[in-house]
Every structure is written in C-alpha cells, then in structure tokens.
C-alpha cells in the first residue's frame, strides 16, 4: 500500500536533492576541468570536506522539520524557529571557523601533491567561509518542509543551480580567478538564493510570539540523522580504501558507479523526507517500507538498463563501473526500504534505534568486505554491502512504519487546503 500524497510530496524533494548534488559535485568540476587534473582533484577534495561539514549541521534542519511539523497549527512555531537560528549562528561559527583556519593542513591531509594541496586550500578558504550561507539555506528549507511545503526548497535549489552555471565561467575564466573563482561563484549563488528564500520564509512562517522551544530538543531530534549521514560517509571512505587495493581501474569504476547510482538513490532519500514530514504532521504515509522496497527494485532495474551507456559517458573502459552497478541490485532493494521507512522512525522518536541499526549493519559490512574481497575479489565487497544493509533493515524499527500519526506530540490535524498561502511557492 502506498500513499499518493506522500509520493507527490517526494517528487519536489527528489528534484531538490538531485539538483543540490549537481550544483556541488558536478557543475564546479565541469567548469574547472579546463584548468587541468590538479584543479579537478582540488575541487573534488574540497567538496568532500564540505560534504562532511554538512553532516555535522544536518541535525539542525532535520530537527526543525520534525518539530515544526509537529507544532504547526497546534502549538507556537515562532519560538522554535528563533531557537533554530540561534543554533545556526553557533553551529556555523563552530564548524566554519576551524575549517578556514585549518584549510592548509586539511588540504595536505587529502593529497601529497603540493600543487594540488595549494589549489584545494584556495578553494577551501572561500568555500568554508561561505558555509554559514549554505547552512542558513538548509535551516530555511527545513522550516518550510516542516510547514508541509517541499516546492519552495525545490525552487531554491533550481535557482542556485542556474546561478552557479552562469557565474562559474565568469569567475573562473572571465575574471581569471581559477579554482578559487569556482568557490566564489558557488558562495555568491547561494547568497543570492538565500536572500530570495528568507524573503519567502518571512512571508510564510507563523508569527506567534508565545511559547518556548529548547535548543537541545531540536538537536536531539535531528542528531540520529546527522549520525547516520556521517557514518555512511566514513564507511564510504573505508570501502574506497579496500577497492583501491584492486588497482586504479577498479577505484575509478567504483567512483563512476557511485555517481551514477546517486541519481537513483536520491529517490530513497526523497521518500524518507516525505515520510518524515507527513509523520511529523500526523498525516497518512501508507507503507514507506513497501514503497521503498519497490523503489529499490525500480532503481536497480533502471541502473542495469543504463549501466553501460551511462558509464561510457565518463570513461572509455566502463567494465568496472558496469559490473559495480549490476551487483548493486542486491544492495539497492533493502537499502531503498531502509531509507524510505527511516523517515517515519525519525519523526516518531525512534531515530536513535534507526542509527543503532545502521551501525550494526556497518559492523557486519566492513569485516565482511575485507574477508570476502580476499576470497572473491571485488564482488566480495559488493556482497558485503548488500549483507550489511540487509542486517540494518532487519534490525531497524520499521515494522510499524506504515501507521499514520505515530509521532509524539500533537493530535492529528486536518490537512491544509490549497487556500492556505503556506501551500504555495
């Protein structure tokens, strides 16, 4: 059983997530590719640092989405939003300042090549200084999603992408700023997008003045999601180390395969956010677990279909990437169910149990990857990924995921009508 309204909510979230990933990891890379391999490597490494920084702040927008959803129309929301902005100020400073000051050691940690490290440090100087702008956008989007509006965050992501596409060539080549120009263009694009977003938020957000909201409640609600994100990022790096033992071609194939697979995987995360939003707002979700499993089947089938031509866009020897995508069928189906159903667990106060299940899966996956890879080669790594995700799904609190309105807090409220201005972009 699925819920049509949840799927409609997931579509703009998918577009938002996909375009946000494109803006960060592809557009800058495409424009700096004309500067040489060192520039490409520098931007790749610098955006990896930003990826981890995002994981550190993720608890804030996630906690706001869930708590705003629970309170909207039932209890004052403005105090919660004010607490969110105070947390943004503290969190942005605590994360961005050390990243700026330590940019050169960070760059040297990521590469032994002095020229590449210098370029990465130049990029990090601007990108890390611009983190508060990026984080502010996630806060604004988190509040809007809590209010049940996913179309405005999608619009914001599309605006930002368009600006990056236009500004990158101007700053990189027109002004001759090179790699640092790519970072400046991205930060400026995000700043302009944020200005539009804040104006919209000021119009749509409730202005109730009474009530209290604890900062720790926001962080505590979103912390499991942040932990899940960071754990997956760390495990991804460890798997890259295992794959690297099989040579450069295997490592390149793995990297290419991951980029292609990301297009499909974003559908699972869109379903998770949609389930989280509707659960927090005590609205029907249908069965996110079943929907996620079906999405896993659909994504796996699509990736098998496009594996060869898609990998061929990146390399003249797509065999390793194609093999990876074929094996991922065993991984994607349980992963789709785990991620989609996880949104209900997160919004209904079971996020810590979900994180524990994720870590249990990784505790199985990593040793198994080392063991099976020495016996079966690369297929052993892919089998370990499937086994670890299956363990996480079996241990996750997803069996009651289809039950609507389980979130602690307000009683179910009636669904907003189209006349409510907060439903419009």
Automatic annotation (TrEMBL):
The keyword RNA-binding is annotated on this UniProt entry: no
Low complexity composition-biased segments: 400-418
GO molecular function: antiporter activity; xenobiotic transmembrane transporter activity
Transmembrane segments: 12-31, 51-68, 80-103, 115-136, 157-176, 254-271, 292-312, 324-342, 354-373, 379-398
Residue span of region Disordered: 400-425
GO cellular component, one term: plasma membrane
Keywords: Membrane, Transmembrane, Transmembrane helix, Transport
Kinase found in the keyword field: no
Annotated function: Multidrug efflux pump.
Family statement drawn from the similarity comment of this UniProt entry: Belongs to the multi antimicrobial extrusion (MATE) (TC 2.A.66.1) family.
Protein name according to UniProt: Probable multidrug resistance protein NorM
Organism: Nonomuraea dietziae
């Amino acid at each position: 059983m699925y819920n049509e309204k949840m799927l409609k909510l997931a579509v703009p979230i998918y577009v938002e997530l996909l375009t946000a990933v494109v803006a960060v990891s592809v557009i800058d890379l495409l424009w700096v590719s004309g500067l040489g391999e060192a520039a490409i490597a520098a931007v790749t490494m610098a955006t990896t640092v930003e990826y981890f920084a995002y994981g550190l702040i993720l608890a804030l927008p996630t906690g706001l989405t869930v708590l705003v959803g629970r309170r909207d129309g039932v209890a004052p929301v403005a105090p919660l939003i004010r607490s969110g902005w105070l947390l943004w100020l503290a969190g942005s400073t605590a994360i961005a300042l050390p990243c700026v000051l330590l940019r050169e050691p960070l760059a040297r940690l990521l590469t032994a090549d002095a020229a590449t490290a210098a370029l990465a440090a130049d990029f990090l100087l601007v990108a890390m200084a611009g983190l508060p702008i990026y984080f502010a956008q996630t806060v604004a989007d988190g509040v809007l999603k809590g209010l049940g509006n996913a179309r405005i965050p999608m619009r914001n992501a599309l605006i930002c992408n368009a600006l990056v596409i236009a500004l990158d060539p101007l700053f990189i080549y027109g002004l001759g700023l090179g790699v640092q120009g790519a970072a400046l263009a991205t930060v400026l694009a995000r700043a302009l997008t944020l200005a539009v977003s804040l104006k919209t938020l000021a119009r749509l957000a409730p202005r109730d003045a009474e009530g209290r909201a604890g900062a720790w409640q926001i962080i505590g609600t979103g912390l499991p999601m942040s932990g899940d994100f960071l754990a997956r990022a760390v495990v991804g790096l460890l798997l890259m180390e295992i794959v690297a033992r099989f040579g450069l071609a295997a490592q390149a194939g793995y990297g290419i395969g991951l980029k292609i697979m990301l297009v499909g995987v974003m559908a699972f995360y869109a379903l998770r956010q949609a389930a989280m939003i509707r659960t927090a707002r005590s609205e029907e979700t249908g069965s996110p677990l079943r929907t996620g499993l079906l999405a896993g089947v659909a994504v796996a089938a699509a990736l098998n279909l496009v594996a060869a031509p898609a990998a061929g866009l990146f390399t003249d020897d797509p065999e390793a990437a194609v093999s990876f995508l074929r094996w991922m069928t065993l991984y994607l189906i349980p992963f789709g169910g785990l991620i989609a159903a996880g949104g209900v667990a997160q919004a209904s106060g079971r996020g810590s149990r979900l994180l524990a299940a994720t870590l249990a899966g990784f505790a199985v996956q990593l040793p198994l990857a080392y063991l099976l890879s020495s016996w079966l080669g690369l297929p052993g790594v892919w089998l370990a990924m499937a086994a670890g995700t299956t363990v996480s799904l079996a241990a996750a609190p997803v069996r009651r995921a289809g039950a609507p309105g389980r979130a602690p807090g307000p009683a179910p409220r009636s669904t907003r009508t189209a006349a409510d201005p907060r439903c419009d972009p």
